[in-house]
Design goal:
491 residues, four-stranded mixed β-sheet, D-Maltodextrin-Binding Protein, domain 2
């Protein structure tokens, strides 16, 4: 028992308990899309049908909706229904942790150098963490990279046999399945660059097999074109932060900059030259990460083991590896106690974080969403249609489905580029902002108190403020109907 509780043996488990805690902390900032994912999952389970057209908005009602995350939404709703918020935090933080644990296993220099590299990769990726279907894609991408990396290394085909069944699941969980096909292509090119010609035909067969299962989903062959349409959408990068390039003026992207500098430094200084195929993989995924923040975790999964290998070669060349590999000898009782504390401390932190979130979930909700304003809107039965902020649409779907359809929500693909520009033009109070409100006969507006549209409505005699707090303000078109007048009297 003393031997198993040595610091070297306990450290990896304690380390990943801390990674789990970081994932919990990030996931506690409830993702705006989680709300409509929950409602969609509930509607699928209740109706036993997967929606094919928009059922949540009044602006795009009946328009095509490619419900590419239907299985994720059923999973999210099922977890929430039976285990609540705690279950969602545990499961999705576990997915994140598992994805990086697989990456850790691919690293050299275990446990310390590998752990340091993984920590850098996790922190760089953490702005994208959350209770969202993308975390399923993160894990599946990590599995694909592991299988492809193992095959590229030893040439044994057995790991590849899992790829087609995993692709079948992936295409029903999330449109990120296209990343899996892309990874096969990238590793095929990497093998060609390294002149491992004999390994390429089998990867080609796997690409065909994985492509063949893509239509086995409720949207059929439509799933081939959908990811490309999303990637080409100019409104995604214009209005959705994770689709835009990382802004290094923001603190949350500085770990990515550090990761890049450390990686380039290690590649330059290490006596061991990285394979040309590895450099290609780093270059392509790094370019993708710099083009869109959404791709940072994939770059981290690819680059972390390469960084660990280069750092380990650099350390070994200077003889510093001797201390890291030195035998710890017999483990005294004091060291056993320390090892137990090393395990218990992050485990206790995990439990505390989950308990705190569950106990204070309404406060977390009110911190980022207009909880009180929506309560007021529902209680006073203010007149619709309601114009709402983009990031609040999912919340309104979850809170008011069946009472108020939304103006817009996080399903940007449903609304299209033209409408997205129109919606944000109105929100930002630019020329022609009134046109959208008049076009859809908007009678109530729910937005942040300090945005340009709020300032314009405050000075417009056609609109009257009926509610305001630090999070949100509600305006109703003056004289819209008797419901509005009654709301003002009851206020």
């Amino acid at each position: 028992m003393r031997s198993s509780l040595s610091f070297r043996n306990v450290f990896p488990l304690a380390f990943f308990l801390m990674i789990f805690a970081l994932a919990i902390r990030q996931s506690a900032f409830i993702d705006p899309d989680l709300w409509w994912h929950l409602q969609t999952g509930q509607d699928i389970v209740t109706s036993r049908a997967i929606p094919q057209v928009d059922i949540y908005s009044f602006t795009k009602a009946g328009s095509e909706w490619v419900t590419h995350e239907w299985l994720s939404e059923v999973l999210i709703y099922g977890i929430f229904r039976f285990v609540g918020w705690a279950g969602l935090l545990i499961v999705f933080s576990g997915l994140i942790t598992a994805a990086f644990y697989l990456t850790y296993r691919r690293c050299t220099g275990k446990p310390y150098i590998a752990a340091a590299t993984i920590l850098l990769a996790v922190v760089a990726s953490s702005p994208l963490f959350g209770v969202r279907p993308q975390m399923i894609t993160l894990l599946l991408a990590s599995i694909f990279i592991t299988l492809l990396g193992q095959y590229s290394s030893d040439g044994l085909p057995k790991p590849l046999y899992w790829m087609a069944p995993l692709m079948l699941l992936w295409v029903n969980f999330h449109a990120g399945y296209a990343l899996g096909l892309g990874l096969i292509v990238l590793y095929t090119i990497s093998l060609a660059i390294d002149r491992k010609w004999s390994l390429i035909p089998r990867l080609g067969l796997m690409l065909i097999a994985c492509t063949a299962v893509v239509p086995l989903n409720p949207n059929g062959f439509r799933m081939f074109s959908y990811p490309l349409e999303t990637l080409r959408s100019p409104s995604m990068a214009a209005f959705i932060q994770e689709w835009a390039s990382p802004d290094f003026h923001k603190a949350m992207f500085l770990p990515l900059a550090l990761f890049l500098f450390v990686l380039f430094g290690a590649l330059a200084l290490s006596p061991k030259r990285a394979r040309a195929g590895e450099v290609f993989l780093v270059f392509v995924t790094g370019l993708a990460a710099l083009r869109s923040a959404r791709h940072i975790p994939i770059f981290a999964l690819i680059a972390a083991p390469i960084l660990a290998e280069q750092v380990w070669a650099l350390i070994s060349a200077r003889g510093w590896d001797v201390r890291l590999l030195a035998s710890e000898g017999s483990t005294p009782r004091s060291a056993v106690v320390f090892a137990l504390l090393l395990l218990l401390a992050p485990a206790a932190l995990d439990v505390a974080l989950i308990k705190h979130f569950v106990s204070n979930q309404p406060a977390y909700e009110a911190m980022n969403y207009p909880r009180a304003a929506v309560d007021f809107l529902a209680k006073k039965q203010l007149p619709g249609p309601v114009y709402n902020r983009y990031g609040w649409g999912g919340y309104l779907i979850r809170r008011l489905h069946g009472e108020y359809p939304v103006y817009i929500d996080g399903r940007a693909d449903v609304y299209g580029d033209k409408f997205m520009y129109e919606a944000f033009n109105t929100h930002d109070g630019r020329n022609g902002w009134e046109e959208s409100l008049n076009k859809f006969s908007i009678r109530t507006v729910l937005i942040e108190p300090d945005v340009p549209l709020a300032s314009l409505l405050r000075s417009d005699e056609q609109w009257q403020k009926v509610y305001e707090d630090q999070q949100a303000v509600i305006f109703t078109r003056a004289g819209a109907n008797d419901t509005y007048q009654a709301a003002v009297q009851r206020k």
